[in-house]
Design goal:
single chain, alpha/beta, Rossmann fold, 7-stranded parallel beta sheet, two-stranded parallel sheet, about 15% strand, globular, binds NADP nicotinamide-adenine-dinucleotide phosphate
Length: about 300
């Protein structure tokens, strides 16, 4: 059991808030850090500011930092690469340096997109990434900045799906009205909202990744921290599929009309998203002693 205080950056975001809740429920002292407010945020800090970042860490003096903060929107990264770089790379470097010097443990959240998809998917933790696009390149540079860290875990995530109980109402409302679906952080909520109203919904059949339940991800991250694991981990669902296929399976299970699902992808997505950056995760499941069936997409849909 980790006894020192845990700082979770990006605690106003999807994964940061969830992992903060989970760690607190397990009895940890958690300080949620973000530049904006949120129910899990108790420390405001702009991670683009190196001095402020170090001072915040110094103030709390955590034994563990879970670094979830990022600029994850691909379009935002392409349009403002310098700003994204400060958050995605520089803040990781600063937190990496501080934790390394202070003997603290660091868990950094990375992405399946570090793999450019050129080699066909099913990438293992040992495969060498060849990222395409600004976001992916920055995530990989952040990973590499931690290569010499004595106590860092890099957890690659993919296509995170919050459970139906998730109550991010504002986000849901905003996203449900968008026709564009590739950046949906609440994909199943989006489907339910639109299909339930008989609205046409678009999803791409080209891009394959590993849908991952947010709750399962938070459990995996907690297990990595509890075991003090070091290295690269693929904390993702065990099924590789496209959003289009997932939407069809969702229709089958919930009785929605699958004719409302159309195969579509924007030209921006075609340029920036690899067709297959699916991850192999058997090694990570074994190290965490997790049952691979719990990461299966049918399990995810049935328990949504
Ligand atoms: N969600 C996924 O499907 C997925 C998949 C693969 C990898 N990941 C990785 O997982 C991590 C967490 O993702 P997420 O989905 O939880 O993202 P998220 O919901 O966007 O949360 C990130 C949080 O970091 C905050 N942040 C951004 N810039 C900051 C700054 N300068 N200082 C302090 N906080 C700042 C964001 O605030 P704003 O909202 O105001 O920017 C947001 O609250 C990221 O590293 C992401 O790359 C996520």
């Amino acid at each position: 059991m980790v006894e020192a205080c845990i700082v979770v950056t990006g605690a106003a975001g999807l994964i940061g808030a969830s992992v903060s809740r989970r760690l607190k429920a397990s009895g940890h002292e958690v300080i949620g850090l973000d530049h904006r407010s949120g129910p899990e945020v108790s420390l405001r800090c702009d991670l683009r500011e190196r001095v402020q970042t170090t001072a915040s860490l110094q103030l709390v003096n955590p034994g563990v930092v879970v670094h979830c903060a990022a600029v994850k929107n691909l379009l935002e990264c392409e349009n403002n690469p310098e700003v994204a770089y400060q958050v995605n790379v520089e803040s990781t470097r600063t937190i990496g340096r501080w934790t390394s010097e202070m003997g603290a443990y660091l868990l950094f959240l990375s992405s399946d997109l570090v793999f450019g998809g050129c080699e066909g998917g099913n990438y293992s933790e040992e495969d060498i990434p060849i990222p395409i696009g600004v976001y992916a390149t920055q995530k990989y540079e952040a990973e590499r900045s931690l290569e010499l860290h004595p106590a860092a875990a890099i957890c690659r995530c993919a296509f995170v799906i919050p459970s139906s109980h998730e109550t991010r109402v504002e986000e849901l409302r905003r996203e449900a009205l968008l026709d564009e679906v590739e950046t949906q952080s609440m994909f199943l909520h989006h489907l339910e909202y639109r299909l339930g109203r008989g609205m046409t919904t678009w999803a791409s059949s080209r891009v394959r990744s590993n849908p991952t339940s947010l709750e399962a991800l938070a459990a995996a991250l907690e297990a990595v921290i509890e075991r003090g694991l070091v290295g690269i981990f693929h904390t993702v669902g065990t099924t590789a599929t496209s959003r289009y296929s997932l939407a069809h399976k969702f229709c089958e299970l919930r009785g929605y009309d699958s004719a409302l699902i159309r195969d579509f992808e924007s030209s921006f997505s075609r340029q920036t998203r690899p067709s297959d950056c699916s991850l192999a995760s058997a090694d990570t499941y074994r190290k965490l002693e997790f049952n691979p069936e719990s990461g299966d997409v049918h399990f995810l849909l049935e328990h949504w």
